[in-house]
Design brief:
With about 130 residues, the protein is mainly beta. It is about 5% helix and about 50% strand. It has one domain: Jelly Rolls. Strands 1, 2, 4, 5, 6, 7, 8 and 10 form an eight-stranded mixed beta sheet that branches. The chain has a two-stranded antiparallel sheet with strand order 3-9. The longest helix is centred in the N-terminal third of the chain and has 6 residues.
Length: about 130
Amino acid sequence: MSNEPLLLGEALASFDALWSPRIAARVNDYDVRIAKVEGEHVWHVHEDTDEFFLVLDGELHLSLREPAGERTVRLPRGAVFTVPRGTEHKPSAPSRTAILMFEPTGTLTVGDRHDEVPAHVDATTGHTLTN
């Protein structure tokens, strides 16, 4: 990781892959990841960690399966939301969207339990950001 400032716009412009996050920074034992997303991800759950989302551009939808039932949270540009640990969720985006996520280093993008992973979803713990 660099000890120089990182311009998120330039970092996002350095890759095109969807649902394939890049590690923009590390804070203690956490990754700050950025990703471009469009279409649907996969239903999954992180048993032991919350997952923080910030929408940088576009709109993100987070479908959640909670004890009270299923609901979808819509996040416009600039919105933040934390999916609580143990909550099954499925991110989606109606159009190209840029997001920032904050989660423990080593967290798999498809969680600890998940549906079958479609070919367009990268099951990764994040990729090194290269400019």
